[in-house]
Amino acid sequence: MLSRPRPTIAQAARVFATLSLGFAVAVASSVTAFAQGVPVIRDAEIEALVRDYARPIFRAAGLANDGIDIVLVNDSSFNAFVTGRRMFINTGALMMAETPNEIIGVIAHEAGHLAGGHQQKLRDQLERAKTMAVIATLLGAGAIVAGATTNSRGLAGAGMGVAAGGGEMAQRSILAYQRTEEITADRSAITYLNATGQSGMGMLKTFARFQTALSLSGAQIDPYRISHPMPQERIANLQVLVKQSPNVDKLDPPALQQRHDMMRVKIAVYMGGQAAAARLMQKMRGSLAAQYGDAQSTYLYGNLPAALVKTNALIKAQPKNAYFQELRGDILMKANKPGEAAEAYAKAVSLDPARSGLLPVSLGQALMAVGTPDSLKKAIIQINNGLGRDKENSEGYRYLAQAYGELGDIPGAELATAEGHFYSGNYKDAKIFAMRAQQRMKRGEPRWIRAQDIINYKSSGKI
Ligand SMILES: [Zn+2]
What we know:
mainly alpha
């Protein structure tokens, strides 16, 4: 499943529209409408794969202990960028890259910016915004590193700066990107690729793609190209470094390539639509990835019993694949069989090597749909488990609040609602719900203290 929130990708594509019905409403209205332009997307499988790509690179870059978050952006253009301790990668880049090595090259280059402390002043400002929702708001659609540099009035000021300055300001800021920083990041990237025994050919291919795109289309401008100016000289330098490496001809391990193909197909099915998915599957004909795409496509656009048969065949081929179980759970949920869905999600949770916080929340949702008091209690445990792994999953709090509500735990429901608002950047409503929750809690109990933390939070400071 590729979504935020669950359960369908159609919803994922409309993520902020959906969120605006819930927790994110105040973010969209009070800070800036740019929030609607950066649809952050969540998917356990893709997040795990991209982290697997990044882990050795971050280690080589000395960033392993910096807690760098990788955030997926639902945008079909080829783009990646870093702010503070977060690296943003567009689904478009993941889908266009034919090999893991191409994405690993991009990650290596961005890691070079992070390790080099480039644009640090701007990043410091963005870093002060603690929640994803506010980061997304600050960034704006394609604005990348926009806006926040010019004023020091804190978070609200930075947000307004982006809104007021609009595209022009964004562009000026992007063009101010130092060319020397780009060359340094390229060199660092090659160092990390060498240290991890990987080729730089993917990086070269990505950069060459931009040059070709530039000469072919006058109209379409890719933000990555704007933020990463690509003079001929820079490519030529890079080419020398890549070809000098003893790893130049190294290929990605086949298992990694297979996961990459499965990711591309998934993005194509959920984000690109049936035709785009069919084209890609045609190129991968006979592979497990094509089979995976077919099962997902049948789930989304075809019929559920057929999707289930296809997914069961996938599970037979890879019994330890957590995401095949997740797909099985998604199908069973849509088929209104929550009990069986819960079993599939439970398997997904137990098989997931990356311990994603998303899968326990899916399990919790299925248990909620079962609807007995016992399953509701289990649902709360699972959702809390998921949120413990990933506390910024604001959708998760919505389900948690609902589960508490159905069990009659009103202060629990109010605190969960407060948390959901909090992690959506909607501090005003977060405080209102935290205060309401406290009225029915014993002063000083752990939940009361958490509510007090939310009440005391200053949006320009740290919690
Ligand atoms: Zn760069």
